[in-house]
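Figure 2 data, in text form.
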Amino acid sequence: MITEWSFEKLYAELGLMRMGFGIIFALFLLLFVAVIVEEVFLGGRRRRQAEKQARLRQAASEATEK
């Protein structure tokens, strides 16, 4: 069986592939921006430091109880 091909068909298939890569790239950029916004504006570092201090206080209080 011989299949017909043409530049138009090849371009159409490559166009869909490029569109798919474009969507994946756009989602990656959106995720990257969301991480930056969370770290800068929502206090990511301060929250982690507060959680670390809370864990240390909990460990210290458990150690004094034993």
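Caption note: The chain has one domain: 17-65.
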